Amino acid sequence: MLWDEVQSPVFETIIGKFMEANPDIEVELQLTPWNQYWTKLDAAAGAGTAPDVFWMNVFMPKYTDAGILEPLDSYIEKDGLDKSAWVPAMMELYSDKGVQYGMPKGMDVVVVAYNKGIFDKYGVEYPKEGWTWDEFVAKGAELRDKIAEKGGEEYPLAMEIDEPQPSYLQLLVQEGLKIYSDDGLTTDLNDPKAVKPFADIVKLMDDKILPEYKILSDTKATDLFISEKAAMLYVGSWKSSVLDNASFAKNIGLIPMPTRENNHCALGGISYSMSASSKNKEAAWKLISYLSGPESNRIQAEARIEIPAYIAVQDAYGPTFQNIDGSIFIEQSKSAVKYPVHRAIATTTQIISDNAAAIFSRTVTPEEGVAKMAKEVQAAIDEYNATMK
Amino acid sequence: MAIKNTFIKKTARKEARTGYLMIAPLMIGLLIFSVRSFFVNFYYSFTNKSAFGNPKFIGFANYEKLFHSDKFYAALENTFLYVLLCVPFVIAISLLLAVLLNKGINLTGFYRTLIFIPAVTMPAAIGLIWKWILNYEFGLLNAIIRLLGGQPQAWLSDPNYVLLSVSAVLIWADVSLRMIVFLAGLQNIPKSLYEAAEIDGANNRTKFFKITLPMLSPTIFFVTLMEIIGVFQIFDFIYLMIPMNSSGMPAARSLVSYFYEEAFVRNNRGYGSAITVILFIIIFIITMIQMKLQKKWVFTES
């Protein structure tokens, strides 16, 4: 079971190949949109009827705690797979207390995209690699002034601040924060540094570089960029085929994120997991091992839907882009850190986005909002740890 | 006599049995999916049920949490605002349209189609189309406003407008179905009443207030009751038009939206159940009040 309709046709191909090689195994592909995916998986898992193999994301600890995922170590050992064939941060993301519960599918990075057409139209120089946050803000201000001078209607910058991953989560990581401590007992959102990313985003809105939150929650930032309404965009690699297929794709430049304390990227990604109640574990493992293996990674890379987590085939990603330069994604991934995770992440993510939304709608100041966020996240962590004892 | 009585009893019993048999499919469905769920839900509201695992009984803890939650009070307030805003407009507009249609006012097929379209359209389609119409950047409404030189607004994400926007869509969507019910009610009023009034020299106004309204009062009562219950449960248009993290959500979130977020997004099923129990109590009380009040204004022929 998977959730992405863009990737579904590619998976038809991959699974077709798998069944050709394994004629005794019948695989049925099930597409469940993101909005219903977790609800459906929870219900099915609760009733012991979860699919044999399904996509898993960083919500994983919730499922390992409920005993729904099959540990994969014995299978990996039996097949003699070398774990170092995959990007270590991704393998680590899907292991829990030293047990591997998922095999990496690929990885998500965030970069900045810019529309060269808009930059040229207003006579603004393209950004240069190695830029800092201040240079990034200055670029936005220059665009704003020149657009206003000529009576243009474009926004200098768009950012999906309605989601953590392609926006403030990266800025938090770039302040040097870990969000969750390694022992899973505390959060460092109460660090004074945690306020800065939110204050900076509000300031971008104050300075009319970034559109107001009411505009960004009405229209996705990526849609603004794709309709040439925004000059720059913080964008996730999972949107790369959308960028590459845009009518003005030849004019899209990509560049790593500007440096704050650092310009690390919180590396997200999906894995394949097996249901612990599967009746066909051998076949399920064969499928997982094929899906996370080189051939499947190559097909996905060539279809531009995923940056391979399987290191040997990473070269396949990039050349197949017709317009944009996909190598920037690989470059950004090199300075990446593991996505901040916690066992209660399904709950804490919601708390963080709720409070972020209040800050961006200006119902609370960044200081108040982050203080409340830190308090509630800590409370959720404590509550989770208490119930698990 | 005795023989006749047993005969009647026998047929009556036979008839009753057939009757029960006829309604059995519906009743079994109701018992399993409504009545049973109602009690199960009531029980869950006293537990810490989450996505998996066995629920633990925790007494009134969910309710206590609920009564200390700002989000709950905001959702409660929004829900009442929806009811106060939508119900009068739906009733007034659908009644007006029904009276006009009943008069045989010559509406062309085009206008009739316009009026009936919402009744045969899926809520999902309505929600998605209006989401586009009301969009800040690319929406039709703002395009018109810009053309007229006005100030475009973020209808679905500005906290000042979002409740009005959702209400407008709900009113638009609900009017046609309610109107059909009113139209049926109007056509049951005997023509002779109007003829008699005309002989007595009554004008149109008097006829409307002295004949139409009283004769239609049972229908008005029924429609109002259904509409109030319906609006209290408002969810679909909010869900379809406003993303959960939108800046408009706090001003648009209804009790059912809050229930959905808690029960299905955050997996606090027990807490979610408590929200629905509160909603049930509110609707129950308001319906009881209406049942009492109706004796004062609803006209019954007997």
Describe the 3D structure:
The complex is a heterodimer of chains A (389) and B (302). With 389 residues, chain A is of the alpha+beta class. Chain A folds into 2 domains: 8-108 and 268-330, D-Maltodextrin-Binding Protein, domain 2 (3-Layer(aba) Sandwich), CATH 3.40.190.10; 110-266 and 344-388, D-Maltodextrin-Binding Protein, domain 2, CATH 3.40.190.10. Chain A is 44% helix and 12% strand. Chain A has a 4-stranded mixed sheet with strand order 7-8-6-9. Chain A has a 3-stranded antiparallel sheet with strand order 1-11-4. In chain A, strand 2 and strand 3 form a beta hairpin. The longest helix of chain A has 23 residues, at 366-388. The model of chain A has no long low-confidence stretch (mean pLDDT 92). With 302 residues, chain B is mainly α. The model of chain B has no long low-confidence stretch (mean pLDDT 90). The longest helix of chain B has 43 residues, at 2-44. Chain B folds into 2 domains: 1-30; 63-297, MetI-like fold. The chains are: A alpha+beta (389), B mainly alpha (302). Chain A binds chain B through residues 39, 42, 45-46, 62, 66, 68, 162-163, 212-215, 217-219, 224, 227, 229, 346-347, 350, 353-354, 356-358, 360-361, 363, and chain B through 51-53, 135-138, 154, 156-159, 243, 245-250, 264-267.
Outline the fold blueprint.
The complex is a heterodimer of chains A (389) and B (302).
Chain A: H1 8-21, H2 34-46, E1 53-56, H3 60-65, H4 73-79, H5 88-93, E2 95-96, E3 99-100, E4 103-104, E5 106-107, E6 110-115, H6 116-121, H7 133-149, E7 155-158, H8 168-174, H9 195-206, H10 213-218, H11 221-226, E8 230-236, H12 240-244, E9 252-255, E10 265-267, E11 271-274, H13 281-291, H14 294-302, E12 307-308, H15 327-334, E13 336-338, H16 345-360, H17 366-388
Parallel strand pairs in A: 7-8, 10-13
Antiparallel strand pairs in A: 1-11, 2-3, 4-11, 5-12, 6-8, 6-9
Helix pairs in contact in A: 9-17, 16-17
Chain B: H1 2-44, H2 61-67, H3 70-102, H4 109-120, H5 123-133, H6 140-147, H7 162-187, H8 191-199, H9 204-232, H10 236-241, H11 249-252, H12 255-265, H13 269-297
Helix pairs in contact in B: 1-13, 2-13, 3-7, 3-9, 4-7, 7-9, 9-13, 12-13
